[in-house]
Amino acid sequence: MTWYSIDTWIVIVGILAAVSCALLGNFLVLRKMSMMGDAISHAVLPGLAMAFLITGARASVTMFIGATLVGVLTAIFTQWVSRFGKVDEGASMGIVFTTLFALGLLLIVQAANHVDLDPSCVLYGAIELTPLDVVWRLQVFGSVLEVPRAVIILAPVCGVNLLCVVLFFKELRISSFDSELAATMGINTNLIHYMLMTLVAITTVAAFEAVGSIIVIAMLIVPAAAAHLLTDRLDMMVIISVILAAIAAVLGHVSAILLPSWMGFDPALVDATSTSGMMAVVAGLIFTVVLFCAPRHGVLVKKFRQLDVVADSENTIG
Amino acid sequence: MFEPSEILDVLLLRNYNTRLVVICTMLLGCACGLMGGFLLLRKRSLMGDTLSHATLPGVCLAFFVGVMLGGQGKSLPLLLFGATVTGVLGCAAVLFIRNHSRIKDDAAMGIVLSVFFGAGVALLTMVTKLPDGAAAGLESFIYGKTASMVLSDFRLLVVVTVCVLLLSVLLFKEFRLLCFDEVYAAAQGWPVKWLDILLLALVTAVTVAGLQAVGLILIIAFLITPAAAARFWTDRLDQMLCLSAVIGGVSGWLGASVSALIPNMPAGALIVLVAAFLFLCSMLFGIERGVLVRFMRQLKLKRSVGRQHLLRALYEILEADGQRMDGVSLRAVPFRQLRGRRTWTDRQLRYCLRRAYHQGLIGPVSKNDAILLTQAGLDAAAQVTRNHRLWELYLIEYADVATCRVDRDADEVEHVLGEKLVALLEEKLIKLRTANDLAVPASPHPIKPGD
């Protein structure tokens, strides 16, 4: 395995994306809205298409704004359908995002006669290519540091997420665990909800544009769920999820390089596989280990505890 | 733009070119609608989403196996088999996580979706880097090819639809129990776990059969939207499932037909939009849980509560003047005094007064803003006040009684409680009477009149 400076940048981009998502994911998992990232990353298609149709160019700023707006709209519509129609939250999410996606598809097909705006290309940005898109050259200790565009997009997003989570930690915590209590304490739970949804939309759009939607969906849920099994304290859960996300990002890229030779492919033909896919897989493996071996909530521990209880009761009866 | 006959030809399936596509999407819509109904009630609507993503690694692995066995790799039965295997594995993983940890359904589905899809993407990347190009177009497997369905797709869909239909009719009772009360079903000795897996296996079959025919997003929408739409029309499971299948079929039929008529309109997207439109209509106009119906019900309740509050407030003000055996004496009550009886705003009270006037319960509001009950209004007020107090006493005396026996409408105390109990309650109320004899007994917990 050879490691280039490109690989370092890929890992940095991966860590930034994973950490931004994991920070917010904790609250999504606790609020039982884990699928929001999936829904938003599909639903933004009409936003992208509209931005494109209006400006006529693939300028990333307008597309970013359009996508984020539609992402927030997805959350709003989901809440409307589930509140006014009294539909199950998951179902209303599914209805909203499939409808928006279909709308986006129609718009793109109408526009696609003269442009290349490929939905699968929009949805699956490639993390492997991010280091090639350099916008910033830094002089550090005499050597030139080429900072990729994805880092410049994702670093502020990560910072904003961190800032919001730290500043509004109390509000987020109370409204995630007990929204009625939060309301009686004078916290505007609706505001907190939409703040979270806006952050999720911004993060989703920024991350999937740079590195692909699969990282977003995986990192929003998997590290947070694993951390949820490891601790009962929310602050610890956030910290653990961030660490797990970073680990998954690093190991994901390493295994993406190593996997093809493990599977017996000729390294000359298949040099590496998809980093984002492997990041999700590594996160899944971490989750599996945690699921079985977590000290208090793990499957194995629970099984042993059950056996203990059975043995104890047999002893006392005997 | 179009000849009417042309439109009719497509809609009535007389056009040979579009017939197959329209029939296939209809069949798929019916099967998905049926399965979606169960998923919705199990609060697992997004399972279709998870499942359809979880098929990707199966498709790639099946391709590997095919190549290793020296075959072409792209044989449809093998790919379908692979998709089904990882689909079922994904379902099993969701169930395992949900049942054996404190991770909830939604997070379990998200985990399985992203991890399986990630594995699929990783495998697919390797497959497409293989030199012989045999894997070209493998990813289109998950995005569908609605417009180019062939006879083999049709056969597959017919088989799957018939199986799904048969099994859900045969196991209707079991699935219903599973949907509404899983714990009770387990206590009754039903193999709940296996029923759950069977249900999800059926969903997997529908998803896999549909995926390569119409694509991922359409399957997800088909599994959720028709069922959610049907839910607004009925509270009965059998009716809901039939309706859901019909809505799914109609969306498939209309969407595919329109797509066949207008160029440059992808069928999948149109079908999703038709289904979403049907959902929106159902949400607004559904006769059981629709937004309008619920709004009307709420309005009716608000009016009836307002009427009772008004009558009781008026009666209690008159009662405070002094009572005789034959009732209270009528007089005009100033608006401000009435306003102070309850926490209602001027506008709410004026609205109640206007309605009461139209019902002939009170006379017109006089120039100096006073309200006078009519004789009919006085009778109604005495009745309402008596019944309210009976309810209050009942709830105080029989606090252990199930709240479901409490009818919040004070008009019908006898209907709910039975005459014997009412007589007993009245006896108790009489004991509460003050030295003066009252036509309507005093409240068990007197409220101080404000203002």
Give an overview of the whole structure:
The complex is a heterodimer of chains A (318) and B (451). In chain A, 75% of the residues lie in helices and 4% in strands. Chain A has 14 helices and two strands. Chain A has helices at 5-30, 36-43, 45-55, 60-84, 89-111, 119-123, 149-167, 169-177, 179-184, 189-211, 213-230, 234-262, 275-293, 299-317; strands at 134-140, 143-148. A two-stranded antiparallel ribbon of chain A has the order 1-2. By secondary structure, chain B is mostly helical. Chain B has two domains: 4-289, ABC transporter involved in vitamin B12 uptake, BtuC; 293-431, Winged helix-like DNA-binding domain superfamily/Winged helix DNA-binding domain (Arc Repressor Mutant, subunit A), CATH 1.10.10. Chain B has 19 helices and four strands. In chain B, helix 2 (16-41) runs antiparallel to helix 10, helix 10 crosses helix 11 and helix 14 (291-321) crosses helix 17 (375-397). The longest helix of chain B is centred in the C-terminal third of the chain and has 31 residues, at 291-321. Chains A and B meet through helix 2, helix 5, helix 11, helix 12 and helix 13 of A and helix 5, helix 11 and helix 13 of B.
